[in-house]
Amino acid sequence: MSQSEILSQEFELGFTYTRSTGPVVGRFLTALRDRNIVGIKGSDGAVYVPPMEYDPNTAEELSEFVEVGQAGEVVSWCWVSEPRESHPHDTAFAWAMIKLDGADIPMVHSVRVEREADMKTGMRVKVQWADEPRGHITDIACFVVEGAESPLGAAGMNAKREMITGMEAPIYLKYHFTAGAATSRFLGKVRQGKLVGQRCPSCNNVYIPPRGSCAACGVATEEEVEVADKCTLESFTIVYIPIPNNPIQPPYIIANLIPDGANISFIHLLSECVNEEIHIGQRVQAVWKPEAEWTYAMDNIKYFKPIDEPDVPIEQIGKIPAAGVPAAGAPVTGREG
Amino acid sequence: MANLVAVVGIGQTKYQTRRTDVSIAGLVREAAVRALQDADLSWDDIEAVIIGKAPDMFEGVIMPEIYLTDALGCNGKPMLRVHTAGSVGGSTALVAASHVQSGTFNRVLTVTFEKQSESNAMWALSNPQPFSPHLNAGAGGYFAPIIREYMRRSGAPYDVGIKVATKDRLHGARNPLAHLQLPNITMKEVEESPMLWDPIRFLESCPSSDGACAMVICNETLAAQSPKRPAWIRGVAMRSEPTMYAGREEVNPQAGRDCVADVYQQAGITNPRQQLDCAEVYVPFSWYEPMWLENLGFAEEGKGWELTMAGATSLDEGGDIPWNCSGGVLSSNAIGASGMIRFAEAARQVRGDADQHQVEGATTALGHAYGGGAQFFAMWIVSSEKG
To answer: What is the domain count for chain B?
Structure first.
């Protein structure tokens, strides 16, 4: 199979985290909101900014906060000529280690100057406060050259407001997901309205969707086997809670279905049924979307619905050939494909 | 041959829905400090730290062990992170124990945690997947069909899960650290709680907790100097198997059976119900008690539920083999810590240090954890006797 036939998709994974800061980080963020910067004194007398919760040498809890200056010295730096979307600035800037006046340990933040030639180790810089501080590290919009005009934000508001104890930290990760050969083959067939699995050369079991290998035998699977869209219910659950961002309304049935000709189940929706009458061993069949809507997705099958066939005896579940349930007395090996 | 080692310190936080007063570091620290205090030790006495937690998605702090080195006094010491999904608390304890059993270290601190309030943990592992219909309905959605199959096979009455859910919450009410405190819970109340993933009801499911658990494990010589009674580690075992393969036995997984056979053999257990005084077993959904009773050899296949219904696993009913006297995962579930809590609570029992949920005269106990799609297993046997 050529590379061009491998499916890929842009994919975003997002989580909305809320973080509790604890008293030390909370104090630092509270100070930032009030346009002050505090550090903390370690057992060796060194002042750490941002403050550490525990001493890096003795592991003891630290609590002696020290207000430090809002200007300091660049200890080291690197230039970002082409900022990325997640960077704090959209024009070129420097990441720098800045040792604030009164601190002993430098902190990382950004420095904005016009060009790389303006950056120098040992240069003096000062805080440029954000327009509307909210108790976050970005309350320091950036550092600028000391002596430069500061268009925004006077230092030290000293307002007496609530302590910051938490912060929101949403994370959205963007992936370029590559499906791989087995899934691409499978979805290519699903696009044609066919369910095609792969047979393990060692145990002869048919996997659907195929994964390109058999997890039991540890061998690659290549032989393709078309299975039926008629399935047997291996088990199921009736779900009474909504899946976030999913239009399916509860209660809905998620069923573990083994298609005729396959030896493992996948999950899909069950519908057009009386929930209370659904049972293990029941026969169901796929209800496909109109062909014009078919794409590379199992969503081509809207759901499965019960059909008028006798239940499969428990010991035969997962062993039905692709041709369907054999007549009474016929041997069932599950290997006919 | 592994050296004899023991648990000499145990520390836990109070498990609760939200610990908004501390950072993740503060939470982990609290359990670690309590374990050191319990062992009458200080940071300098610890040679290495073995930490574990469930997937990083739960808090969105990637590789949190890096940020937690200061809180756990790891400067200049080896630190190791373990991850085996929901069983991680158990496997972390075993990795810690093996570093002492091997003689690599004389005394280690092991810590596990989860701060689930930082995310919506129920869905953190059920996010949409590319090229797949989004039908992952949380952990309950995954385990419910397996429970249904157990019910069919065993022909167990419908209220076995209800009984377990009630029993473990009554146990939890004896344990001040337990998240859920439901001293007046009844089977009727559990039965009437909303169905979430049929056949799993709301009150048959574990809560979502913030919390941390820590232990100090040391060699035989150092254990002899310990101020409190050590819990000797008499057997350790881990097993895993793939999540999905054709013909996989999901109700009574082979990896669990192999794991327990190994740990029993090491500890000389041939009749667990008779030789063990109690067990702390990972039961996040109530029906997993009868299922694991069978998987762990306390009952023959299909008969686990009979022990439950007879009260054999209940401390309050004077059962002969109480399970989850601490309240279990059904009463507290800080996922990454949940397995270690089982291991630590088993150790508390044989140290005679379990207060109101103590099994009188307990000398030998099983700690158990499972994770993933019931595919990772971790177990240990602890005893008041060296054997």
So the answer is: 1
